[in-house]
Design goal:
- By secondary structure, this protein is of the alpha+beta class.
Length: about 550
């Protein structure tokens, strides 16, 4: 178990009242959760009240007892967290919710976030900005800081990614520079640990991290998961090929529905928020088992899709940029690859689908303005009680700082939608298992270069990540480099829910304390459960969120 740090400050004077560390009224108090690069630089800057990016992956708090000046800083990508709340003239600051409780702050779950978590989509759990799952508790956004002096509590930010002009460089030059930055990021993180293991799929991101690491560690331990029932896609042939090509030791970790069921309560205890997806629950199981084998860290390819534009959904925003710039020929050409590699019966890739997307989610009157996916946000609001006033559930406000639809979407995914809930859950897994996860793509130098890639180099004949695929020739095996399909190797939640997990849902619906809270339309949820069990329609996401919220609620704040 890795304990969080916390402090309590008197708001009027900035005086330190108590802390998770031993108090010394004469020495500078420095609390760090994670690792950071620029310690002396930051301390020098703090001497004159300047705050800057501390570098590395860390939440940092510094208190000067002489001046009663305190600053708390969250890392650029939000890998570690900073929470804060006020009561009785005091400010509580901590690197976790459980730390706030240890500091003496009383925690009360927020019913509005209950509604969002169960009835909406995991992309919106971070909204409203700076909110948490508790009333009166706030969380710094990635790259934000909290600056406390006598009678003053202010927030600020150093996150903004200023795009570089790479228009004069060739595809080869840009790809090689990206690879150079990523290789350096991998090396910096390898230097922090002794026996790392590497999560691996058939995709480019995890494969590139593992192959770059193999140049340093020799024979890396490669981790994949295997489930107790068949899944639609099996990547074992591709993973096996990569493992053999780099001389890695390949370990398959078997996951059963029993493993997941037994972990739900264990995850909930002490967690800052409910588990967003089954992937993060599986991550917890993997971290425990990897730690049991003597490994002291997991390396992940998370952030690679944001750095190199690899999510299937991102094609749509790329197409919007092409449409705005009048590049219809390029749009039609790249739609061929979009359809060839990513079309499924459930998700067709057609011109009518694209035009419908443009109509509902793109504002062509304002270059770069991405609109809220209304259907996704309100996807399950009908399972909320009629007593819930829908207008009191705030609608997400999407930031659009760039003139490119695609870059704004990448920015939203990185700092607001997809990455934040994953990082918060995986940080909880780090605390409870003692096995940190390291993310080489979540590096400022790597991400800035990726975000700055010119639009026309983002895709090639409709395939993703052309620059990194070319740059890693001879490093990443061709089977992985030339794998243009993005299937995923997801846990079989739909099958599990129809069988063993169904009982958990029914138990929740029958619980009188759940009914008395007045959040849910119980009959609507029962109807969804019948549809799912009978195979009429999948509601796996809804029931995963319901199960995890209610189990978390039992332990909220512990």
């Amino acid at each position: 178990m890795i304990n969080p740090f916390w402090v309590v400050l008197e708001t009027a004077t900035g005086r330190l009242i108590k802390s998770s560390a031993k108090l010394d009224t004469t020495a500078l108090l420095l609390l760090v959760d994670g690792w950071w690069e620029q310690k002396q630089t930051l301390l020098d800057q703090l001497a004159d009240g300047t705050v800057a990016d501390p570098g590395g992956d860390a939440a940092v708090l510094v208190h000067n007892p002489t001046t009663s000046f305190t600053v708390a800083i969250r890392d650029c990508f939000g890998i570690h967290s900073i929470y804060y709340a006020t009561d009785a003239g005091n400010l509580h600051v901590s690197s976790s919710i459980s730390g706030l409780k240890q500091s003496g702050f009383r925690l009360r779950p927020d019913p509005v976030k209950n509604c969002i978590f169960v009835a909406s989509h995991y992309r919106y759990f971070t909204f409203p900005k700076n909110s948490t799952f508790f009333i009166g508790v706030f969380c710094l956004m990635p790259g934000e800081f909290l600056k406390i002096t006598a009678g003053s509590v202010k927030t600020g930010s150093f996150t903004d990614l200023e795009l570089a002009d790479l228009s004069g460089q060739s595809e080869e030059e840009i790809g090689k520079e990206f690879l150079h930055r990523l290789k350096r990021s991998v090396a910096e993180r390898l230097a922090l640990v002794k026996r790392p293991a590497f999560t691996l799929s058939s995709g480019m991101d995890s494969s590139t991290v593992a192959c770059l690491a193999a140049q340093t560690v020799g024979s890396p331990t490669l981790i994949t998961t295997l489930y107790d029932v068949p899944t639609p896609y099996d990547e074992s042939a591709e993973v096996s090929h990569t493992a053999m090509a780099i001389g890695g030791k390949w370990l398959q970790i078997r996951i059963s529905v029993g493993d997941v069921l037994s972990m739900i309560d264990r995850f909930a205890i002490g967690s800052d928020e409910p588990c967003p997806t089954v992937t993060q629950m599986v991550h917890r199981i993997v971290a425990e088992r990897v730690g049991g084998l003597g490994h002291d860290a997991l390396f992940s390819g998370l952030g690679g899709d944001e750095a190199t534009c690899g999510e299937i959904e991102e094609y749509l925003y790329y197409f919007a940029d092409l449409r705005r710039q009048g590049m219809e020929d390029r749009l039609v050409r790249d739609m061929v690859g979009w359809k060839r590699y990513h079309e499924t019966p459930e998700y067709p890739k057609t011109l009518s689908v694209l035009e419908n997307f443009f109509e509902n989610e793109i504002d062509f009157n304002f270059p770069g303005r991405v609109l809220l996916h209304q259907r996704r946000f309100y996807s399950n609001f009908d399972v909320l009680s009629q007593n819930i006033i829908r207008s009191e559930i705030p609608c997400p406000q999407l930031p659009n700082p760039f003139s490119s639809y695609l870059v704004n979407k990448l920015n939203q995914d990185l700092f607001f939608e997809t990455i934040p809930p994953v990082l918060r859950a995986e940080m909880h897994n780090t605390r409870t298992t003692g096995v940190p996860t390291l993310y080489p793509f979540l590096d400022r130098n790597v991400m800035l270069h990726g975000f700055s890639t010119p639009l026309t180099m983002r895709y090639k004949n409709g395939t993703t990540k052309p620059l990194i695929r070319a740059a890693t020739k001879g490093i990443v095996p061709d089977m992985a480099r030339n794998n243009f399909y993005k299937h995923g190797w997801n846990a079989p939640m739909e099958k599990w829910l129809r069988q063993e997990m169904k009982a958990k849902v029914e138990e929740i619906l029958a619980d009188r304390t759940v009914q008395q809270r007045g959040i849910y339309n119980i009959s609507a949820i029962r109807h969804r459960l019948t549809e799912h069990v009978n195979g009429q329609r999948s509601h796996a996401q809804l029931f995963w969120q319901l199960i995890n919220y209610e189990h978390w609620y039992q332990y909220a704040g512990t």
